[in-house]
Write a sequence for this structure.
């Protein structure tokens, strides 16, 4: 079959302008599809890459902004089956005032991070620094990149929830492009609050690590039962459920994005089908000659189909590459995207890349199917008579 | 002499399959862009409630919304008596201290929980928020466990209707009224007594922000400066109009995506149209040669082809926007409104509604596709030498 490839290629380059335009149109549309697909993929990735099946989130039953007494974490740590627990307390720090809160920043206990978040693959040396330096901070790669920070930088966050401004030294990173977190030492925040006559005696969320996936369900029930009818009742969820709930408000947007993606895809089908039908119509006589020379129906059909597929495959590859460039450009704009949460990561994963390539190939096939079939099936004598 | 319009239209009708495929491409590009555009402009409309030009919002320095701000009781007591704050008939300052909390609400179906913005207010709030009006029922009374729900909240969550018990936070609240706020995001809020809310949420600082009405004739900027410069409280005062304009900015990321979508899809569709028309010129060489031979000028041929392409684009525009208006409504109805959240992660609910602005954008897009897509083929047609064209045809 490959020996016919030069022939297919020759046919494609015969009308260079048309092939080029079609190719470019397919490329642009595929780039769009790629770009749009990163948005729902970002949401899925949060659940897939961060959520661990042995981590539980425990928070106030009334809402995430409702605090829990700090003593709860000790009670949770004492439960059998719990290998570690760390608390996240929303600090609400702002880096550049005019931009507002652009990344989630939490006060945590550095010594418990390694056990609870061992799957984050943070450098042990950096974790050690985080524990050692009171003003240390560990920052997710997404936030590092967006603000052009690097390890060793000093940054000052202005508190909006607490009336304090704090300076931090970045000692480590969460090596994940989607991680926006900014972790600081809880004790550092507490001491700063004590200096102004206050203190940090509550927490936001407790992340609990369990030794055995089988123990997760019973342990969640146990924790909620332990604090039932107290001043602050808790709600425990698996990490996956937590993220799903947290971002549930984005579901509607995701549906709209998927619809738009579908429309753009359909648009490519139309463009490609149009070209394929033009290419075939012009060559009625030629195809008849080929058939008369002894080329089989299937072969002619295959060659015409291959032509369309090759064209959209090239366009698809170009589009996917364009999407890579575009997403890089978008990500480097710090002002963009923080409000979009995980929809705004704009990362073209290898999966998306390959998926769009296959999509392009499939579209090429689909759009060439009808005209190629028609052309191959046409009676030779009739076609020749019409032309000559 | 120009060619009759009938010629251009007739040419399109002569090649039905190709014409409808090209119209389809343009319509799809328009549909995709308009649908997304309708979503974003709804977002912007919701966020950009104009605010009252006479009002100031006081928050902690650096806070971008009153959900992540804190104002102490002492600070509130001081600034409400600052010079330039308006007074009501009884001589009380028109300063509304507010506490914003986002508890979980259960949706009616019980399947999802969402963060809803609950605003703790005092009676003065209604005087300061001039956009807000009570549509049904009455205003809440202090310390009585009563709640006022926005039009957007009413009916979406379990218990959020007049006379029902609404459960959130630690307690249960009786809904005594429903308010409207000219379609702004305030309508996605629930209002309760500020002190009760602070107790429920165990807030160490009683307020998250203060809204001030500036007295007629007073210098607004001077008052804002005085609040901002006071070293005791580290507060910042912004004009309400400015604050809301900034909130609307957060929809700009989406707007940028819409523009990108329009441009990329538009270029793609234009390429498709160029292809079609080039093929059309190619197929009609003899016809064009004849036209030129019987005396139609180059200009007339050029215009005829441009008109053909514009007609394609306009039909695509009409089909695309019509579909977008229908699809937008259908999608919103199926999903029960589209939720989104800004900064605070409290849910605002909107519908996709395709407005005049979106239609104009789509029209500009289709005209651009039509002109760009038609220009090059039209030039080629106009350049044909009559003798050549006739001979080859």
């Amino acid at each position: 079959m490959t020996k016919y490839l030069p022939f297919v290629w020759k046919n494609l380059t015969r009308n260079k302008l048309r092939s080029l335009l079609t190719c470019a149109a397919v490329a642009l549309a595929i780039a769009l599809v790629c770009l749009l697909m990163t948005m729902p993929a970002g949401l899925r990735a949060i659940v897939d890459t961060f959520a661990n099946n042995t981590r539980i989130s425990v928070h106030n039953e009334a809402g995430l902004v409702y605090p829990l007494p700090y003593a709860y974490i000790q009670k949770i740590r004492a439960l059998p089956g719990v290998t570690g627990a760390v608390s996240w307390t929303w600090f609400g720090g702002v880096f550049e005032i005019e931009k507002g809160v652009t990344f989630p920043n939490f006060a945590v206990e550095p010594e418990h991070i390694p056990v609870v978040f061992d799957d984050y693959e943070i450098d042990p040396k950096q974790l050690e620094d985080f524990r050692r330096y009171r003003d240390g901070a560990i920052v997710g790669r997404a936030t590092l990149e967006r603000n052009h920070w690097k390890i060793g930088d000093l940054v000052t966050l202005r508190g909006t929830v607490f009336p304090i401004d704090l300076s931090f030294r970045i000692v480590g990173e969460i090596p994940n492009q989607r991680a926006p977190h900014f972790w600081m030492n809880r004790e550092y925040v507490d001491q700063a609050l004590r200096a102004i006559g206050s203190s940090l005696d509550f927490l936001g969320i407790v992340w609990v690590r369990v030794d055995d996936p089988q123990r997760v369900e019973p342990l969640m029930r146990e924790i909620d039962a332990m604090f039932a009818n107290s001043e602050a009742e808790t709600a425990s969820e698996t990490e996956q459920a937590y993220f799903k709930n947290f971002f549930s408000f984005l579901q509607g947007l995701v549906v709209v994005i998927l619809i738009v993606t579908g429309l753009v895809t359909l648009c490519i089908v139309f463009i490609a089908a149009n070209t394929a039908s033009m290419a075939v119509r012009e060559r009625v006589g030629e195809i008849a000659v080929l058939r008369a020379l002894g080329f089989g129906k299937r072969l002619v059909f295959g060659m015409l189909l291959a032509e369309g597929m090759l064209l959209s495959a090239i366009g698809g590859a170009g589009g996917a590459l364009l999407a890579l460039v575009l997403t890089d450009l978008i990500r480097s704009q710090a002002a963009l995207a923080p409000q979009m949460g995980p929809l705004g990561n704009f990362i073209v994963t290898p999966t998306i890349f390959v998926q769009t390539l296959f999509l392009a190939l499939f579209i090429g096939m689909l759009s060439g199917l009808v005209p190629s079939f028609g052309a191959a099936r046409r009676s030779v004598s009739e076609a020749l008579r019409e032309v000559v | 002499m120009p060619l009759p319009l009938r010629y251009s239209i007739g040419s399109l009708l002569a090649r039905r399959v190709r014409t409808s495929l090209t119209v389809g491409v343009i319509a799809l590009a328009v549909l995709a862009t308009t649908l997304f555009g309708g979503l974003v402009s709804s977002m912007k409309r919701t966020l950009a409630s104009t605010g009252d030009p006479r009002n100031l919002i006081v928050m902690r320095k650096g806070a971008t919304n009153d959900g992540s701000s804190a104002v102490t009781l002492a600070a509130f007591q001081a600034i409400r008596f600052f010079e330039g704050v308006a007074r009501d008939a009884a001589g009380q300052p028109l300063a509304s201290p507010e506490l914003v909390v986002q508890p979980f609400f259960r949706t009616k179906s019980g399947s999802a929980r969402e963060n809803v913005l609950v605003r703790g207010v005092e009676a003065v709030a209604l005087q300061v928020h001039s956009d807000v009006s009570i549509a049904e029922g009455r205003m809440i009374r202090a310390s009585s466990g009563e709640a006022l729900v926005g039009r957007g909240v009413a009916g979406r969550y379990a218990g959020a209707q007049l006379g029902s018990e609404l459960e959130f936070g630690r307690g249960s609240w009786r809904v005594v009224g429903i308010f409207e706020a000219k379609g702004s995001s305030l309508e996605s809020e629930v209002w309760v007594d500020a002190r009760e809310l602070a107790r429920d949420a165990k807030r160490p600082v009683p307020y998250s922000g203060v809204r001030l009405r500036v007295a007629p004739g007073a210098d607004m900027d001077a008052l804002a400066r005085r609040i901002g410069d006071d070293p005791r409280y580290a507060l910042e005062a912004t004009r309400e109009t400015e604050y809301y304009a900034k909130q609307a900015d957060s929809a700009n990321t989406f707007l940028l995506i819409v523009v990108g979508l329009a441009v990329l899809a538009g270029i793609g569709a234009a390429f498709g149209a160029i292809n079609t028309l080039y093929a059309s010129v190619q197929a009609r060489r003899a016809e064009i040669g004849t036209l030129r031979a019987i005396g139609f000028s180059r200009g007339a041929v050029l215009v005829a082809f441009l008109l053909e392409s514009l007609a394609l684009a306009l039909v695509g525009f009409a089909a695309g926007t019509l579909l977008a208006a229908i699809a937008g409504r259908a999608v919103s109805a199926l999903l029960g409104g589209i939720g989104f959240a800004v900064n605070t992660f409290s849910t605002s609910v909107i519908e996709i509604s395709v407005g005049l602005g979106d239609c104009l954008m789509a029209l500009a897009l289709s005209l651009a596709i039509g002109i760009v897509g038609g220009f090059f083929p039209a030039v080629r047609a106009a350049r044909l030498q009559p003798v050549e064209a006739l001979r080859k045809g």
